[in-house]
Amino acid sequence: MFVFVEVSMKLTFLLFLVVLGGCSGRVNWDAKDAHRHCARAIAEWPDREAPPCQALHMCANEAALSPEEGQKLLEMIRSLPDCPLP
Fold it and tell me: Which of 8, 10, 16, 40 has its CA 20 to 30 A from that of 84?
């Protein structure tokens, strides 16, 4: 019984860490796999702030986007001052 409770508590703690980490809303745009976050950033804009210009250019070059997402990405780039089109 004690072992089950201990394992259950560890699993609960791990689940808490996963949920906490996934809900932070922060994206490391310098990470190697940052392109995975492009679609979400595009979908949440303009309700959420656009990522930095460099990240948007990375999305344009590396993310697999639908035509609609690509169009919205261009709008995002145009909304940032001093961010040229890719």
Answer: 40
